[in-house]
Protein 1
Amino acid sequence: MNLIDLPDVIIHSIFSFLADSPSLIGPCICHMMRPLSKHWQHELDDGKRDFWELAMIDLKRDYYRIYQNNSYILSNTGVVASTDRPFKRSRTGQSSCPRRSGRLRPATPKDRYIHAYNRLLSRNESALLELQERVHSSKKRMSLSMLKKLLIEYEPIAINRRVRTGGTFLVEVVRARYVQESVILKCIKLLIENGANPNIASAEVGLCSTSTTENVYESSAASGEVGRCLSVSTGEELYPLIIAAARGMCTCVEYLLAVGANPNLRGSSRFRLYSNSRISVKGKDLTALEFAKKMMDRELENGIKRTDLRGLLRTIELLVKYQE
């Protein structure tokens, strides 16, 4: 029996293990199977109704898999926000959803999935843009209640997807300014509990760098990005653990390590000194520990006392202990 002859439920289960998150199951099967033959192309484009209905449900949640005890387990399978709330009814008893012309409605199950998928990416873009404005604002600062409200307002959110500008929700939260470390830690915990993956990098977009989201239904399966974050970037990657380590946020570092953050991942960025915000330290392809040590050396060179760097010292201690 060929794979294409299996029931849609079984095919869906197979690709749920190949894709990094539920929101990538649909793109994953299109990347891998659609280019193989016209038969697969026809089945995916015009058939497989049950599969696409299951994939539509997958767009309402997000999680990531971690390797533990010689096997893969699902981590944080909770939904970011429920989308099962009933539509409001008008006085006439009709749904308040706007009507659409039959010619504008998606014709096939796959077309309906693509429409929902594009709406998901659009919500992600809008939500992350609003989050970026708050994490860098000295007036409307980031808070736990604000983040909860944001996740509910733009529900459902594929929390592990990198947007066109290269950002991710977890990275933006760790970079927050004008707030205490305890607030950042609470926001990190909220995102992790809702399925955020601490090992997905943002791609910093600057001069001579770009970040785009490819059309997942027309790209070649030979790209090597099947089932992964489908953002292709020439920007410099940056991980949440590296940001927390460079900023000396020891409680955030300890928590990220506890939930599976990889301390061996390398990233590139520039961070301001605690002792002089006009001076920044640039690092390229450094681990979290290497970034923390580099920040420590520059802080000491700038004349700050070691007693004022307790967070950075504790961060280095945690990372060294974790690697032993």
Protein 2
Amino acid sequence: MFKRLAAAALLAATVVPAFVTVAHAQRPSPPPGPLVSGFLCCNMRTYGDSISDINYDEQGTSIVPVGTPARVTSYDFRWFGVELGGKQQRIKNDYSRNIPLPTFAQRYVVTQDPKQKLATFPAPVRDAILAGKVMTGMTREQVLMAIAYPVASENPSLDAPVWRYWRDSWSEFQVQFDEKGLVKAVVGDAVALSRVFVATPAAQP
């Protein structure tokens, strides 16, 4: 009896590692994508080493500025690794999963330095973007630089007249565009507006 139990225990000890090895081998590989170098498209808020596409303005986050040198280093299933200004970060696709990850990465790491375009904007617009704020009269491109892309799950088309954003899980604000594609209003609660809106209208060249 003792010998049979010992043999069964030995068999179990040899089978389990084999099962673990097979299960590990069957894990699918992350999607491939180009390891490009460029610049961060827009102001993004980091929690230290990770950034979400929702870009919450929460306590403990800090801004990685638009135009920061960027280099994509890896891809996983819901995020891509990127070196931003010499520091490793992950940009997570939390709310834009209808966008393939390589395309998602290309939104945030762009080949042309946005600071070159930024330098051509009127000073009030430039200052608002650098502060991460929106003002009436801004173009869609300028809004993107200032507060990044609205998440695709709630904004399937960037041509829509309203972009929906969230300052945190409970505080939505909306950027509304006129027929010329310029910001006509920013709507939200008082706290959100104090964080993202500049009342002075933008004068475009």
Protein 3
Amino acid sequence: MKVEALLCLNAVFQDQPNVDFYMNKRRFAPLGEFIEDVLCHWYGEYELLEKHHSYIQWLFPLRQQGRNAHAKPLTTSEIEIMKNTAEIQHRLRRAYKLMLNFFGVKLVGEEEIEVIRDSNFSTRFSNLNTNAHNNLRITRIVRSMGELGAAQYQAPLVKFFLKEILVEDQLQNMKESALKYFLPAVKNDHERDALSEYVLKHRISKNAKRLLPVVTSLLPTPITHWTPAYSEKEKKWLSEEPGEYREDGWYQLENERIVLPATLAPEIVRALHSRTHGGKTAMAQQLEPYFYVP
């Protein structure tokens, strides 16, 4: 007997509202439609998708009770049925694409899944920045895809939003939700760690761009005038510290401070002194926020 049939037999005496909805046997509630009607007729209906608040808990169910009292939490038996029923998996992916279009993005690729901007991204991004409740929807979508056997769609969506926030300087009202909720919801440890590294890398890169003018204004000669030559001992220490090498060879810590090789530190201090003629304490106060000597 097929797995699908066995699972259905085991759950036959249980209430399965989420399975029934995805099998097109019941409408979502309250004031709802059958899932096929939603998937076929709601695509591109942005005002309807924005203002209707009952459907999202049914399209992307979770184990926890949401705000819609009519939508029931996923049960363990429902999860197994939904993960192993081809018809449900097909509808789940259609629901995912429906919401991606609402957000102004789309899927590309089959084996290598990627999320990119859609042609409507400008107006849809404006909507995302204005209506913060969509951050809750995105969190729910990411978590639900992981629960229902479609975890491969989690990381590409989260990475897309992180890139828009950290690199493209878009969707700034989404930043806190992306870091606190979207990213931790990714189930695969390797993918989640890679996303965390991506965040760290681009936070440091962005901070470095902001920091360089400050550092340059302190010194009579730009810091790029010097070539950092870290000793083997210093390199070993750096390998254990959170941060990264910048393109100009300097190592920048996670807290934004630039690491000075011990051999260069005295020369840079002398350069600062020649500009400010400050005392030891004054120079230490000026340099400490921006530099570190291991």
Protein 4
Amino acid sequence: PPASPVKLVFIHHSTGGHWLADPNDYIYGGLGTALMNNNYYVSATNYEWGPNGIGSRTDIPNWTEWFTGENSSTIMNAVYSETGQNIGDFGAWSRLPTAPGGENTIVMFKSCFPNSNLYGNPDDPAASEPNDAYSVSNAKAVYNKILTYFQTRQDKLFVVITAPPQTENESPDDPDLSKARRAANARAFNNWLLNNWLSAYPYKNVAVFDYFN
């Protein structure tokens, strides 16, 4: 753990909120307390947060709007300066009693489980440019694109939380691509994030946490 408190902000929706939450009568994971006990001061975004309600848009295709879009400077300045918990409909979590000065140093961000409903094929290469598709090729293109922003902010640590898996019952039926094949695509993409995405990245300010496997 760091010797002095470090400010961290988590961009998330439901599963992230439940993961942060202290023990309660519903769903909780205790991540907020665990981070507090390791000297991190944790803030978060949520639905409707930020410039133009960007907090509501955390699907994989949305990450380019956050990090490389035309309003990304405004959005990221708000992310770096955020000190609220923005708990919303999810459980509260404990924090250090005093916020350290300065900006958030660590940015964690996560798409939710519907983003594990990916089309295409497991070994599809990245598209040349990101688009709006929920596919293996576009997901790779999005993460390759935002890496160009991360390399300009080596004063920050960016932690990608892989999208959690979607249960078979929650996955929509589609005659064009079976649930099993979409699940295989999601696993292949998350394995790519873990094992291949950063292989040629020369800096030490990006990490991936495997929330899928």
